[in-house]
Amino acid sequence: MRTFSNVSLVHRKSIAVLLISILALALNGFSGPVAAGQSSPSDPSAPSAPQATCPPGGQCFADVLPGSPFYDYTNSLYRDDVISGYACGGPGEPCDDQNRPYYRPGSDVTRAQMSKFVDNARHLPGISIDTDTDPQPIYANTGATNGIGIEGLHGSFVGTAPGVRGGTASFSNDAVGVLGLVVPTNPGTNSAGVRGINNGTGNSGIGVYGSHAGQGNGVRGSSATGTGVSGSTGGTGTTSAGVFGSAGGSARAVVGLNNNAGPEGTGVQGIHQGGGYGVLGSSVSGTGVYGFSSGNDGSGRGVFGSNQQPNGYAGYFLGNARVTGDLTVDGNCTGCTGPSKIDHPLDPESKYLYHSAVESQDMMNIYNGNVTLDDRGEAVVQMPGWFEALNQEFRYQLTTIGGFAPVYIAEKVQGNSFKIAGGKPGMEVSWQVTGIRHDPYSEQHRTPVEVDKPDEERGLYLHPEAYGQPDSKQIGKVEPPPTP
Fold this sequence. Notes:
By secondary structure, the chain is low in regular secondary structure. It has helices at residues 19-27, 71-79, 111-122, 387-390, 440-444, and strands spanning 340-343, 352-355, 364-372, 379-382, 391-401, 408-411, 417-421, 428-437. It has a three-stranded antiparallel sheet. A three-stranded antiparallel sheet has the order 4-7-6, with no helix packed on it. A two-stranded antiparallel sheet has the order 1-2. The longest helix has 12 residues, at 111-122.
């Protein structure tokens, strides 16, 4: 590889300066003075031959024959109008069947001729360097603080041609068409191997654009221990986005994947440093946020929410919420004694049936049933084996069916059973027993009956409309997020 130092390459045409070396190679074998009365090729004062047509791969000069070490060089430069020749027919230079000009490769090159070479080269529309052996045919370096190693520009106001283009024909893994490299191992903040800039002030154009013709990645970023892809925006409006993904049909606009088989790591994470939303999902008519787990061991969670604040919410729903399946609550459930809703048994296609729950200031359980008295007018009601382990402070209600009798509780609950007496043989008695929970959990989590509101909730209501107050007085009220 040949390195050209202290060369400023500003425009694409300036790459033609590299031809100086190629010209030197092509002319390196020239020796001997120019014959008296003759001029050298491309001498500004020398008469040159009219530019003859030189077919691709064909011989251009009569005196530069195939097999010459300079054959390809001179033919290429002649076709590109960098060098010219002498018309045939002069002394010792007869014309052949193609009237090819003469190059006179044994003549020296003057400084004036070299200036003409360079001037012709720098006006070429483009430069092509093709090599099968040199791994780095072009190298540009600048030591200037704000210098540019290589710059490409597509100067036309129309068309889609790139200013700079790189490509690779390799089928190997990790082949690269364009590579940008930050050399220092301790680079400055926001240093970039590749950076794209769009100077537009509207919403048109893209800073960096990647595409894939198949099912691969249009843009991919990776990092050994940091962030693979990072996006940011200086905009403050609701339409600004640090990272934006879009897709059509059933495709996904944004996908996050963590390949760890264990519980560590996150597929997608959103963070907000203030009081906004870490993750916001919205849909015009579908599901704003959807979570699912494919684990079959029962440990997976479709959606998991956590809040470390004592008065905060791990989940907050503004509007109706439906649970299809079982709902498990490990702790108090405020307002959970509301009505149950089922299909109406007499008109299930057109109506619902609502029932309200029975409430108490105590953590009370209610049990009831019917029993038939024996020939002595008595009956023993057997309760479940866990009855006394769960309950205490029992209360009883008895009602005879089909007649009157002075029935009473002959024996209180003991050994998970109680005894009824005072009735008539064969009489049916309806009974009800209540008990107050005293299992370990309830003993540690007694439901307080009257509680003062904390300072941040004073003056607010769970249901402000019931007291003629506006919605702004609702505890924990959250305004809907702005529409993206």
